[in-house]
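Can't paste images in this forum, so I'm doing it all in text. The chain is below; anyone willing to post the predicted structure tokens underneath?
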Amino acid sequence: MKISESNENGIVTFTPEGWLDTETSPELGEKVESLTEASSLVLDFSLVEYMSSAGLRQVLAAHKKAKVLGAAFSVINVGPTVMSIFKMTNIDRKIDVRAR
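Text version of the structure:
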């Protein structure tokens, strides 16, 4: 899985590409866990085609990491297929998830 990363004025954005599943989601988890500071943590899902429960766990772990860092957290540019997973699990009511 390819994951782009940017850090602009403390706003750290990870942009995974493709499928976020059992095989690929640990890479996102490693990147998020390696953060030592951020004012905001953003997951840009504009290039995510599919997300399994393993991917959802990484999103929740990223949310938890943001809290530890005292950072804001959001998932942006979520497509309809992945958004349905957030809605079905009610995660969209607990964290900031924004559709495309």
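The mean pLDDT is 96. The helical segments are 25-33, 53-69, 80-88.
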